[in-house]
Design goal:
elongated; five-stranded parallel β-sheet; alpha/beta; seven-stranded parallel β-sheet; 366 residues; 14 helices
Length: 366
């Protein structure tokens, strides 16, 4: 939303400039995006009354996700920490009349049961872009607002995707172990594989997919993509199926939203099409990839390598992957920088404060 407003206001700015400007706005927590004449600031008494009103609002935080966010929620609202409750269902019944907001993330959101158990629930503010852990249909039916944190984590996830490509092809993690173990004294490390010029196929050409494509282009990589429909205003090569995309790519990157249609979008057929020299990079969500088939393909040598930031049953990771030198494993840290998590937290807080102040939401989904 912020980026859209800035593009309209300053079309001459570059994408990077827009991103920095949007992040600056959010980081400074200046959430009034009106272009009209500013109204006089509220009096201290009015501010105090508004703060006291906010402090009485019950907010349910589903799991520990960010210390700054947790501290700020505790300051501004009546915070309930769901993960600390030994009898969670009893707790929800006891606090049903108090909880008016939920803060979740890509792992723990708001399913139909939780939504039904909270009759006073008004908003679900997600500390993530992904919304598959939130029952959006139920929220729509009950008039519950939903927000997420788009745009602000795009750059970090795209950076990490390129990092995974380099790490897998150039065996960076393995090289590090080689030096630390003292093996270098016994001889040079084996030759690795060049990244520049490789054909990069991207599943999902949204904000993150485009950012990955732009970075890969700097390495002279031809860009191919698959999405629900062909994108306008791009010279990238479109393929109408993921199998076709994989067949024409050296590196296949998953960067789409998780939906029933995209669950296991990377299956055995896709992996076989990518082939024994191909590399799979997943910075989307774990269920995008059939994990059992991925393990088989890697162990059997039908797939050349993989760089994975996400897994089907996090934090559980198939142990068969641990001993594979052509695999790089990360603990779902795509947006895990201090800078981005701060901006994400401010968006969550800003959306909650906007809702309970009867102001427009910053990043509405529902």
């Amino acid at each position: 939303m912020v980026a859209t407003i800035w593009r309209r206001a300053a079309p001459h700015l570059s994408r990077a400039s827009l991103s920095r400007a949007a992040c600056s706005i959010l980081t400074n927590r200046s959430h009034n995006f009106s272009t009209t004449t500013q109204t006089p600031s509220p009096s201290p008494a009015t501010n105090a009354a508004a703060a006291a009103k906010m402090e009485a609002i019950g907010v349910l935080m589903m799991c520990p996700m960010n210390s700054y966010l947790e501290q700020e929620l505790d300051k501004r609202f009546k915070l309930f920490r769901y993960w600390t409750q030994p009898k969670q269902r009893e707790f929800l019944a006891q606090q049903a009349e108090s909880i008016r907001a939920i803060v979740g993330n890509a792992t723990y959101g708001a399913d139909a049961d939780i939504i039904d158990s909270l009759p006073k629930l008004e908003i679900v503010s997600s500390f993530s872009v992904g919304l598959d852990r939130i029952d959006l249909l139920q929220c729509k039916e009950k008039g519950i607002r939903v927000t997420n944190t788009p745009d602000v984590l795009t750059e970090d996830v795209a950076d990490l995707a390129i990092g995974l490509m380099l790490a897998v092809l150039r065996r960076i993690c393995e090289c590090d172990k080689y030096v630390r173990s003292g093996a270098w004294k016994l001889g040079d490390f084996k030759l690795t594989t060049k990244f520049s010029g490789k054909r990069v196929g991207i599943i999902g050409l949204g904000r993150i997919g485009l950012a990955i494509a732009e970075r890969a282009e700097a390495f002279d990589c031809p860009i191919n993509y698959y999405s629900r429909s062909k994108k306008a205003n791009t010279n990238y090569t479109y393929y109408g199926s993921v199998v076709e995309l994989a067949s024409n790519s050296d590196i296949l990157v998953v960067a789409c939203a998780l939906t029933p249609e995209t669950t296991h979008i990377v299956n055995r057929e896709v992996m076989d099409a990518l082939g024994p020299k191909g590399v799979l990079i997943n910075v989307g969500r774990g269920p995008h990839v059939d994990e059992a088939e991925l393990v088989s393909a890697l162990v059997e040598g039908r797939l050349g390598g993989a760089g994975l930031d996400v897994f089907e049953k996090e934090p559980e990771v198939p142990e068969q992957l641990f001993g594979l030198e052509n695999v790089v494993l990360l603990p779902h840290v795509g947006s895990g920088t201090v800078e981005t998590r701060k901006v994400m937290a401010d968006l969550v807080l800003g959306n909650l404060e906007a809702h309970f102040s009867s102001k427009p939401l910053l990043t509405p989904v529902v």
